[in-house]
Amino acid sequence: MAGAGRADGAVGAAADLAPGPAAGARETRGAIGSGPREPVLRAGTVALALGAALLSGCASSPEPPPPSPPATATVTSSPSASPTAGAPMEDLSGQDQANHTPPVWDEAAKRDAESQAVAFMRAFARPDLPARDWLAGIQPFMAPEARDYYAAVDPRNVPASAVTGTAAAQDGPSAYVATVVVGTDAGDYVVTLTRTAAGAPWLVQHAEPAGG
């Protein structure tokens, strides 16, 4: 009986010392479950660090400064550029001062207008001439703007063929315009002449039979 008791005690001690299946299973599950946790934690830590770095980089980048307004230049006039009060004015037209003298309607102006009107009518009252010769005869007495108009006239349609009467200048409101009545074999003609200044020649603008 004493030997059997010692054997049972030895078996119980051995059983106490040997690890049971439940303890081994817990240790194995603990070893398997604890294995992947470290890589997962490391990956999360790296992702958080990268996100913080990106956020800090965006927050730390300075905004561009607003554009500065364009510089404006201030122009000041030089006192020397303004003419002095006593300085003479320069003649920019290049013409003689006499050409700017206003004309007057006097006896000399009347005689000049009558003479020019008679000379024109003598050249005008030539229906026997070819058109080219007739036009060349009247153009020297005419204003440039009237030459184109008379270039279309057929001299064969001119009723007058000679100057037979006297010339008489009519008084008018302007010293720049003269109206002269010249007698011809076809009746009186009214000749209108103009001038641009005192001393400038009278030039024919138009001629027509008196009364239209």
Task: Characterise this structure.
By secondary structure, this protein is of the alpha+beta class. The protein has a domain at 102-209: Nuclear Transport Factor 2, Chain: A (Roll), CATH 3.10.450. Helices cover 41% and strands 15% of the residues. The chain has six helices and four strands, in the order ααααααββββ. It has helices spanning 2-17, 21-34, 37-60, 107-124, 131-138, 144-150, and strands spanning 163-170, 177-184, 187-194, 203-209. It has a four-stranded antiparallel sheet, with helices on one face. Helix 4 runs antiparallel to helix 5. It starts with a helix and ends with a strand. Residues 1-44, 46-61 and 69-98 have low confidence and may be disordered.
Which helices and strands occur, and which strands form pairs?
Blueprint: H1 2-17, H2 21-34, H3 37-60, H4 107-124, H5 131-138, H6 144-150, E1 163-170, E2 177-184, E3 187-194, E4 203-209
Antiparallel strand pairs: 1-2, 2-3, 3-4
Strand content: 5-15%
Spatial strand arrangement across the major sheet: 1-2-3-4
- The CATH class label of the domain at 102-209 is Alpha Beta
Fold-level CATH name of the domain at 102-209: Nuclear Transport Factor 2, Chain: A
The main sheet comes to:
4 strands, antiparallel
Q: Tell me the CATH architecture of the domain at 102-209.
A: Roll
Quote the distance from N terminus to C terminus: 180 Å
Instruction: Quote the average pLDDT.
Output: 71
